[in-house]
Amino acid sequence: MLKLVLCHRIQARVGNHALHDHWRQARSALVRELQPALRYDSYGQTHQSSRLDFVYLSLLFSRSRLVTSLLAAKKLSQTHPVGGSEHWDVTDEFEYSSQESLVQAIMSEAGAAAAGRLLKDQASFVRQTAVVITEEFVDAPDPAPQPLDLRVDFFLRRRRELTRDETLAYWGETHKQLVLSLQSPLEYRAYNQLHVRSAPDFTTVTQRFGGGDTEEYDGVAELCFTNQWILAKGIFNPRTELANFELVKNETGFIDHQRSVLVYGNHYRIFPR
User: Within its chain, how far is the Cα of 213 from the centroid?
Assistant: First the structure.
């Protein structure tokens, strides 16, 4: 399964409510209209919560330079943090059955026209878009998918001394097993890994959706929760916090947290209903 993720950063003059209302209503309707041209199998959106949300701030702190430096087994390299330059406010997520189906759809005349309509639709709301093309691995399937749930998406970049292949191999085996072993204390409902893939045609796909001006990610970790109260409760639960710090300690061996980006908020399954 291939997943195409479009990450959008809001324009300074646009209000958060206006952005999210547009995406839930007009954007959703447009994407459904364009399904025959884009030929995706499913479509969803993740909406970033308030950046003053207590749970969001707690998640950021647990992966801050201070915390990761204390937990890291290997000395962390000095890298320039992404800061506010990659704060994603909403994402579009398209699933395709294969790389061929994705490329054929977007490279077609109808697909190119549909991508152009999406760019036109977002022009008044978005100042920056990152395009992430990934292979999806469903490591802990959702037992009961809902139209609305809570999602933590972690857009990962590797440590400088590692190759992408080394990073994805470790993440896809050793770290995955650790995450699965901690499902009970973390109380997540589903866990997916999205491994970034490269191909000659992906450059054109990226350009058609308005991407190409950000450094590539190496993967995206998706954790699904029933609601925000599970996460809020976990902040005050020593067992949950110890499990989270065990994850962070392991992450420091292959992830550069200062160049990675966390998105936290409601996830909507739009198509199929």
Answer: 17
Q: In this structure, what CATH number is given to the domain that contains residue 103?
A: 3.30.70.100
Q: Rounded to 5 degrees, what are φ and ψ at 232?
A: -60, -45
68-72, 74-78, 108-112 — which is least confidently predicted?
74-78
For residue 81, the model assigns a pLDDT of: 64
pLDDT of the residue at 86: 80
| Exposed/middle/buried for residue 75 (C-beta within 10 Å: 0-12, 13-18, 19+) | exposed
CA–CA gap between residue 42 and residue 269 (Å, rounded): 8
- Confidence at residue 84, expressed as pLDDT on a 0 to 100 scale: 59
Q: In a 10 Å sphere around its CB, with 0-12 CB exposed, 13-18 middle and 19+ buried, how is residue 173 labelled?
A: exposed
Number of domain units in the chain: 1
Residues composing the chain? 273
**Which residue segment(s) compose the domain that 138 sits in?**
2-271
The count of C-alpha atoms lying within 13 angstroms of the C-alpha of 246, restricted to the half-sphere facing its C-beta, is 17
CA distance linking residue 3 with residue 190, whole number of Å = 16
Average pLDDT, stretch 51-63? 94
Q: Name the phi and psi angles at 3, rounded to 5.
A: -125, 125
